[in-house]
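User: Here's a structure from my thesis project, written as structure tokens. My advisor, Dr. K., wants to see whether a designed sequence matches the one we expressed. Can you design one independently, without my sequence as a hint?
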């Protein structure tokens, strides 16, 4: 049996499943929107039986597992009758306790699935530490931007006096809901000496990174030993120059297939093995002097945005990887 954990609206998962069906396989898909319940779990035998959408699944029969994205939620947390039943108690504390209980169960389930012989993706590595990733990339011989984190205005001022710099989240992009109709989005932004000069002497630790004039951006999706690369011509558009995600829908960036030099490709292969990922999306830039600079890695990545513009058979390749 092949088990997939994903999100309901993820188009890549749906396309991979169509390929698997054409190969005579019938995978089971669990979406993070689905409610999960435990029928039976025996730690001694490492035996787990779950129920999702009224369907019982014995995890002992699962031979291949793909973690695409999403999480595993306990069905009780979505049951209003259950939530109402704890009224009269400090509900917030009870739910917090139960969430800790569920984390232990969930981690055990994921550990069993990720111990299978054929696994693609990693739930336990859903989010990577960007600072550790930069360090590991540099240890593998990849160039990275000059990066600095401090909570001291004096130190930041000294650092940004040298070149042009940008700031961005240390962790992940997290939209901030301001009102029912307004959401603040986070992007990479240019920062100068004046921006820092007007701040207080101390502030929350902030990341400053060298701003590198680029020729093109490179988005790379990899699965096992296969790497698919795309060039994004974002530099000529003032809207996308600093951050490709500031999409200009009236003048979309040109995106074309791209071949990475063998020397860089070997370093990338060494790097992803070093951080124990067998799939994901890598962001790089190429400078005007044709230097390759590593930026970050996403363990899931947007596959659709690479496969469709470049006509890469990535979804088919994922299906073959899981089916073999």
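Assistant: Designed independently from the structure alone:
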């Amino acid at each position: 049996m092949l088990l997939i954990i994903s999100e309901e609206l993820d188009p890549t998962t749906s396309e991979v499943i169509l390929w698997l069906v054409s190969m005579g396989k019938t995978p089971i898909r669990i979406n993070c929107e689905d409610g999960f319940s435990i029928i039976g779990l025996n730690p001694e035998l490492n035996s787990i039986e779950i129920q999702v959408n009224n369907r019982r699944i014995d995890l002992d029969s699962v031979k291949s597992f793909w973690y695409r994205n999403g999480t595993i939620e306990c069905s009780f947390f979505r049951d209003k009758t259950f939530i109402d039943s704890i009224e009269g108690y400090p509900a917030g504390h009870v739910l917090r306790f139960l969430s800790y209980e569920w984390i232990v169960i969930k981690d055990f389930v994921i550990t069993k699935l990720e111990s299978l012989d054929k696994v693609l993706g990693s739930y336990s590595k859903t989010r990577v530490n960007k600072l550790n990733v930069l360090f590991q990339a540099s240890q593998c011989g990849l160039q990275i931007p000059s990066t600095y984190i401090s909570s001291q205005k004096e130190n930041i001022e000294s650092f940004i006096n040298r070149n042009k710099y940008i700031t961005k989240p240390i962790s992940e992009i997290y939209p901030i809901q301001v009102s029912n109709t307004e959401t603040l989005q986070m992007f990479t932004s240019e920062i100068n000496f004046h921006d820092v000069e007007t701040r207080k002497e101390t502030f929350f630790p902030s990341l400053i990174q060298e701003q590198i004039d680029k020729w093109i951006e490179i988005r790379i999706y990899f699965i096992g030993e296969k790497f698919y690369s795309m060039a994004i011509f974002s530099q000529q558009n003032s809207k996308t120059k600093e951050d490709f995600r500031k999409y200009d829908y009236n003048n979309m960036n040109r995106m074309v297939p791209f071949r990475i030099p063998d020397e860089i490709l070997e370093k990338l292969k060494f790097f992803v093995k070093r951080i124990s990922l067998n799939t994901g999306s890598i962001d790089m830039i190429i400078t005007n002097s044709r230097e390759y600079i590593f930026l970050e890695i996403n363990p899931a990545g947007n596959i659709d945005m690479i496969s469709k513009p470049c006509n890469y058979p990535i979804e088919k390749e994922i299906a073959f990887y899981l089916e073999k």
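When you compare it with your expressed construct, this may help: The first helix runs from residue 11 to 22.
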